[in-house]
Amino acid sequence: MSETLYPVPADIAAAAYIDDAKYQEMYKASITNPDGFWGEHGKRIDWIKPFTKVKNTSYDPHNVSIKWFEDGTLNVSANCIDRHLETRGDKPAIIWEGDDPSEHKVITYRELYAEVNKFANVLHAMGVKKGDRVTLYLPMIPEAAYAMLACARLGAIHSIVFGGFSPDSLAQRISGCDSKVIVTADEGLRGGRKVPLKANVDKALETLDVDKVVVVRRTGGDVSMTEGRDVWYHEEAERVSDHCEPVEVNAEDPLFILYTSGSTGQPKGVLHTSGGYLVYASMTHQYIFDCKDDDIYWCTADVGWVTGHSYIVYGPLANGATTLMFEGIPSYPSPSRFWDVVDKHKVSIFYTAPTAIRALMGAGVEHVEKTDRSSLRILGSVGEPINPEAWQWFYDHVGNKRCPIVDTWWQTETGGILITPLPGATALKPGSATRPFFGVQPALVDAEGQILEGATEGNLVILDSWPGQMRTVYGDHERFVQTYFSTYKGMYFSGDGCRRDEDGYYWITGRVDDVINVSGHRMGTAEVESALVAHPKVSEAAVVGYPHDLKGQGIYVYVTLMDGEEPSEDLAKELRGWVRQEIGPIASPDLIQFAPGLPKTRSGKIMRRILRKIAEDSFDNLGDTSTLADPAVVEDLIENRQNRA
Ligand code: 6R9
């Protein structure tokens, strides 16, 4: 691993909110006196009734409870819109760039106010009130942000389902939180291709009962509307006013649910609340991207993922920033698209994912070099470990060696970034997320939960709470406790492995549980396995990750067929299609190996360690196989492995 040090550029340090001395001072204050620190920074948002209590949290597995600013009240949408109107009414809040380069739209804060108020009134007319869950299944259009903020205005809880999920996955997430109102669009548009969102909703609702489906018109494509249930947003919007009083909510009232994959079972509904989340999202956004009033900030994520929640919508808008929202994909109509958009809108802060960088790297540097990019000042990366080669390419060619890269480590569960450089404070090492943000106490532990000191490697835990932390798994607090606080008692366990070097820098090495990270999307191997065994010809399945040049990790599937079924190319194709249909295209297996048997212990446990090694094409050192019930299956697996160098 490269350990070249990139010092903070003097001009960046001079102009930044935080330089190294300030970082040290603030970090120390945040750890020695969290109440004092967060009591002060909690004031960065507007409270209707100011809080008098700051931190009230316990990681004791018998009583996990996380509360911040618990007696304060606020409205999140008023913080993201209303409070900016006086000074920033005419400032662009959202710059929307369509899939087709000929389409873009600028929405000022004043316009955002009108749109969100109208959207809130439409939802209210559909019966949505404080505490209700609303499922959003939308493409990257401004209405996605309007709908989120409209829910927040009403005190309702949004649950966004990424548009790449199948009707089955959508149905599971609608019923999981008992949403009675769904917001979708006729179709999405990505890379010139249409995504049948409304048709997917119709399929999802074949077995579910909801009150209303609000349909935003995006492409004008033909969709069927169910009388009494489905309404067009544009028709309803004509009937309502553009003023809706923001509903006062408690700091600990829920803001949103977001389903995410874990190592076991079905996806869990990660619940975030209002006050602490907004304080943390806005503060991290300001300091980590060093975002100033005249910046044009672009995060390329989808609002269907947590990055879109915190760093396209809530963080930037709470700060009164200009946030760019992109409907398309990096390669359409050409691999210059990102950089064309940077030039077109004079983007100064650009936040993306390693998988996109690797794909564009593969397309050739000429697509970058023919663009100007002189507006860029700060670059960012999120979603998976960035390999030093991709880091270097991003730094050299996209940022012309001028722009610091913030490699930001965090999770759906953490609400905001936890480990990251600050542009004006932190010397960079390619591939390292560097140091903790204010209030964050990372530690590395061994398998027994002993805290390891100094330069070492271990499992990454966080020792105490920060305001943006998830509060519970929706409807299943016990699962929350079990998943995050029981492996290592009294600590939040991230599920990631990590190394810490001599300078105290953190290097995330990837998941240590049965979660794989495919193009920055989290996928539970258990979910893919349960989809596969639901196929009538499959008897048993095991899924592991393997290194993939573009995706970071690819999905490697071992299947054992039912007696009498024969392996074939056609069947492999059928299984791929099956998984796409059950979960969504993002879960599509890359490699499928038909195996007469899987390696098991004598007690019947699948030995995934062996399957991982074979999938990695590194089977010389399989470790201890003496506990295998039938050692011969391993030879067959090696013989027929699918990933050959
Ligand atoms: C924000 C987000 C979380 C998992 C996390 C880790 C991986 C995210 C990373 C990173 C190394 C980074 N991850 N950022 N690994 N360096 N900068 O991605 O949330 O979808 O919940 O995924 O992603 O493995 O545990 P989420």
TrEMBL record:
GO terms for cellular component: cytosol. The keyword Mitochondrion does not apply. CoA binds at R190, G191, G192, R193, T307, S519, R580. This is Acetyl-coenzyme A synthetase. The gene is acs. PANTHER family: ACETYL-COENZYME A SYNTHETASE. Its cofactor is Mg(2+). Residues 527-605 form the AMP-binding enzyme C-terminal domain. Acetylated. Deacetylation by the SIR2-homolog deacetylase activates the enzyme. Catalyzes the conversion of acetate into acetyl-CoA (AcCoA), an essential intermediate at the junction of anabolic and catabolic pathways. AcsA undergoes a two-step reaction. In the first half reaction, AcsA combines acetate with ATP to form acetyl-adenylate (AcAMP) intermediate. In the second half reaction, it can then transfer the acetyl group from AcAMP to the sulfhydryl group of CoA, forming the product AcCoA. It comes from Stappia taiwanensis. ATP binds at G383, E384, P385, D407, T408, W409, W410, Q411, T412, D496, R511, R522. Belongs to the ATP-dependent AMP-binding enzyme family. It is an enzyme of class 6 (ligase). PROSITE patterns: AMP_BINDING (PS00455). The keyword Ligase applies. The modification N6-acetyllysine is found at K605.
